[in-house]
Amino acid sequence: MEKTAEQVSMIQKTVDKKKVIKTLEPYFYIVPCMIIFVGFTYFPFLKTIYLSLFNTNAGGEMSSFAGLSNYINLFKSPSFINSILVTFKYVIVTTIPSILIGLVLALVCNNKLKFKGLFSTMYAMPMAVSSASAAIIWMLLFNPSIGLINFLMKRSIGWLTSPFWGFIAVSIVGIWLNSCINFIFITSGLKNIPKELVESASIDGANYFQRLKSVILPCLSPTLFFVLIINIINGFQTFGQISIMTLGGPGEATNVLVYSIYRDAFFNSRFGAASAESIILFLLMLVITLIQFRYEKKKVFYK
Q: Using 50, 70 and 90 to split pLDDT, how confident is the model at 108?
C-alpha cells in the first residue's frame, strides 16, 4: 500500500510537471523575439531617456547631470521650435497629396484596362528605390543648369538654393516615394471589397462616382486609415532626402526634427540634447497616433 502511494505521488508529480511545461511552452517561442525587442527597441529607448537627463562631452560620454534642463533649453531654442513647425508642415504637405495620388492610381488600375500589369509595376517601382538614391536622382532633375524640370518649365529656378523651392523640392521627393507605397496598400484594399456590393449598386442605377462615394470609399476606409498612419509616421521620420539634398537648409527651411536630432548629435556633439529631442519626437507621434485611433472609431467602417 505504501509503495502504491509513492507511485501515485510520482505520477502526480509527472502530471504536474507536464502541465507546467505545457503552460510555459508558448512563452518559450516568443523568447527569441523578446530578446530582439529588448536589445534593439526597449533598451535603446530607455537609454535615450536616461541620456536625455545628462550633459555629454564630444565623445558622447555623460559629463554632468542636467535633469530637465535639456528639455527646457530646447523649447527656448528658436531653431528647435522651427524644426517642429517645419516637420508638421512637411507632414501635411506630403501626406495628403501622396494618399490622393496613390488612391487615384489604384482606382485607375482597378478597372479593366489594357497593360494594367505594366502600369501597376510602373506605379509601384519607386518602392524599390531607397530615399538616398531617390534624392540623388531628383537632385539631377532639380539642377538649375542641366536639370530636366527647369528645361521643361523653361525657367531657371534654384530648387535647392531657395528656402521656398528647397522645401517644395524635398516635399516632391517625399510624395513620390510615399505614393507608391499607398498605391500598393490601396490596391490590395480594393481587391478585398466584395464585388456583390459594387454590382448591386450598379444594378440600382448608381454611376461610378456614386459607387465610389457610397460603396468603395466606405469599404476602403480601414485601408485608408492605415495608409494615413504610416504616411504621418514616415513624414515625421523623414531624413534621407533632406540629408543629401539640402542639409536642413537653405536657412533651416527643411530642418525637420529628425535631421535636427542628427545634427545636434553628430555635428554639435550634444548627445543629451539630441536624446531629449528624440523623446519629444516620440511623444508627438504617440499623441497624434492616439488622436487618430480615437477618431478612427467614428469614421472607419469595418465590413
A: confident
Angle between helices 131-141 and 163-191 (to 10 degrees): 130
Report the run of H or E that residue 63 belongs to, with start and end.
strand 62-65
For cell 456590393, the residue is 197
> Amino acid letter at 208?
Y
- The whole-number pLDDT of residue 303 equals 54
Q: Write the burial class of residue 158 (CB in 10 Å: 0-12 exposed, 13-18 middle, 19+ buried).
A: middle
Cα–Cα distance between 266 and 288 in angstroms, integer? 28
Return the CATH number of the domain spanning residue range 77-299.
1.10.3720.10
Query: If 0-12 CB within 10 Å is exposed, 13-18 middle and 19+ buried, where does residue 99 land?
Result: buried
Q: Which of 179, 286, 283, 174 is nearest to 238 (CA)?
A: 174
Element (H, E) at 62: strand 62-65
- Find out whether 124 and 184 touch, Cβ atoms under 8 Å: yes
Cβ atoms 256, 115 nearer than 8 A: no
Task: Name the 3-class secondary structure at 122.
Answer: helix
Contacts of 226 (CB under 8 A, 6+ apart): 185
Return the minimum-mean-pLDDT range out of 49-53, 177-181, 207-211: 207-211
Which 8-state DSSP code applies to residue 270?
A: -
Q: Which residue has the higher pLDDT, 141 or 14?
A: 141
- In angstroms, what CA-CA distances link 218 with 142, 230, 295? 39, 19, 15
pLDDT in tens, 21-33: 788 888 888 888 8
Q: Which sign, positive or negative, has the C-alpha torsion 16, 18, 24, 28?
A: positive
Length of the chain: 303
Give the DSSP H/E element, type plus range, for residue 27. Answer: helix 2-37
pLDDT band at 300 (very low <50, low <70, confident <90, very high): low
Contact 138, 241 (CB under 8 A): yes
